[in-house]
Amino acid sequence: MKQTTNSILMIRPVAFRMNEQTAVNNYYQKVLDGLLPATVNAKAQQEFDAFVEKLTAVGVDVTVVDDTLNPDTPDSVFPNNWISFHENGDVALYPMFAENRRHERREEILDLLEEKGFVIHNIIDYTSAEEDGFFLEGTGSLLLDRANAKAYCALSPRADEELFIEFCEDFDYAPIIFEAFQTVGSERKLIYHTNVMMCLGETFAVICSDCIDDKKERKMVLDNLKENGKEIILITEAQMNNFAGNMLEIRGANDKRYLVMSAAAHQSLTPKQIEQLEKHAEILSSSLDTIEACGGGSARCMMAEIFLPRN
């Protein structure tokens, strides 16, 4: 199984804003005072378009789908939470915490991918768990080490343990379960998505291990990464708050590896960390300030990797 792909799906926002339904447990979201909703959306579109341009310029195959005005989906720019694509032609659909995010799941997106020559054999649908109040938000909640058949998951209100184990059984992944915390005010609160504090590349892992308060769990996670020969690059909680954990390794033209992140994440890294990362992949960064501030997500969340076979 490949760990990285050249093909990604991205959704261009039409009514992007801070989603009040996700702000209850996403502590990265902020209200941008004094900006009209139309201005926020226009800024987000500019950031999105510039980001896509940078990706396509290095040979990444980006499928861009425009969001629709109805129904209201302020977070549609983060498709990796509701869908994942797998090498055997399987597609997984995930149960979402925020009710208005459930409308992001659009069947016509699958039709469009099939028109592009991607092959879908099977849809595995976990969305009925929403009715019982259980959630698992795609590759936000799940970090897949596809090559080594391991899945990492930091449990949270958006990542249910039983659902995660069910996913691992369905897709033949070994589950690696832990809890990760961030400091909010004077409290330690669960981090809403695993992919905020951790990134898995082919030959490296970026992780804020300080978030894993339980020493045994922290050792277990780091041991699993080392066991698979990953160079571990540690980031601080301050760097994580600049989305330095929210990166994704993808492939451009001639299979060249790129590590994609936001400008804020890139700027937060030390020269030594940059040197460590550049041994594995070339860094590609783009300014996503508005999307990060209002959406509480960054570069990795905006890209749903497509591993499907092609006709």
Q: Would you write up a description of this structure?
A:
Keywords: Transferase. It holds the Pfam family DDAH_eukar. The chain is an alpha/beta fold and 311 residues long. It has one domain (7-305): L-arginine/glycine Amidinotransferase, Chain A (5-stranded Propeller), CATH 3.75.10. 28% of the residues lie in helices and 23% in strands. A hairpin with a 4-residue loop joins strand 6 (142-145) and strand 7. Helix 1 (37-57) crosses helix 10.
- The CATH topology comes to L-arginine/glycine Amidinotransferase, Chain A
- What is the C-level CATH assignment? Alpha Beta
Average pLDDT works out at: 92
Distance from N terminus to C terminus (CA atoms, Å) equals 18 Å
The total number of structural domains is 1
Please count the helical segments.
10
Shape: globular
The share of residues in helices is 25-40%
From the 3D coordinates, which CATH architecture would you assign? 5-stranded Propeller
Major sheet characteristics: 3 strands, mixed
How many whole angstroms does the radius of gyration measure? Answer: 18 Å
Beta-strand segment tally? 17
List low-confidence stretches: none
Beta-sheet strand percentage? Answer: 15-25%
The strand line-up of the biggest sheet is 2-1-17
Q: So, the CATH homologous superfamily? A: L-arginine/glycine Amidinotransferase, Chain A
| Helix and strand run | EHEEEHEHEEHEEEHEEHEHEEHHEHE
User: What structural class do you assign from the helix and strand content?
Assistant: alpha/beta
InterPro entries: Amdntrnsf_FN0238 (IPR014541)
Protein name: Amidinotransferase
Organism: Flavobacterium caseinilyticum
Keywords: Transferase
